[in-house]
Amino acid sequence: MDHVKLFTDTSLACSKLITGRYSTSFTLGIRTLDEKLHLPVYAVYGFVRWADEIVDTFHDHDKTALLADFRRQTHEALETGLSFNPVLHAFQHVVRQYGIDHEFIEAFLHSMALDLEDQNYHPGLYKEYIYGSAEVVGLMCLRIFCNGDAAMFERLREPARRLGSAFQKVNFLRDIRSDYEDRGRVYFPGVVYQHFNDTTKSEIEADIKADFEAAYEGIQQLPRSAKLGVYLAYVYYLKLFYKIKKLSAARILGERVRVPDNTKLLLLLGSYFRYRLSRI
Fold first, then answer.
1. Which of 138, 143, 165, 242 is deepest in the core (most CB within 10 A)?
2. Residue 1: predicted pLDDT
3. Domain that holds residue 234
């Protein structure tokens, strides 16, 4: 028995378990990808989920020290090709296999560090944060989807970034109350939570709409192995976005918008039929 392979396969299985426990929606999206893409994408999710947990969950611990140690362990895993943290071992394996850029990893960890301190999110820092927290995650997945096709990656780089940006901004808008009340954060530049109104909300929504439109052009050009899964994530977030658009700013501050499970199933079925009919 090849015990090195067993160790790596077990580490990848741990990332799959983490994804299933933390995000049913993301797990559903991964399952609609070609099977060969499942474990690599689970590995990416496991990595970003663990870093995010450090930042947002363990308030009774020194989160700065925890994140610094996680960063150190990440670098060590990437350098040596081994980690006894199964999440990091799975992740470094996928980084090496698909040539995921280390710059993406550094940008992601930098954005996680930004969440450890109170920030004034001026336009430059806002773009920097979104790039590191969301866009590079899409770019990591794009490396996997393109599987060594550098020309395809460069062609789809910008749409992938715009899709990650749209997802993150929708999250910011949906969670504006909890981000402020629980974490003291308002990510949108120049927005004062107490003065958040319908005009401000409409301006933010116009920006998100432009991101969605640019992203869809890229989804149409994805390899067939990845197209359905990415399209499903796109329509799920678009549905969430449309629900948010229908509500007033006051309603957004008073409730957390979600897409019910039965609606998610309908979105899956609709996406599948569009995919089968080559209408994506």
1. 138
2. 67
3. 147-279
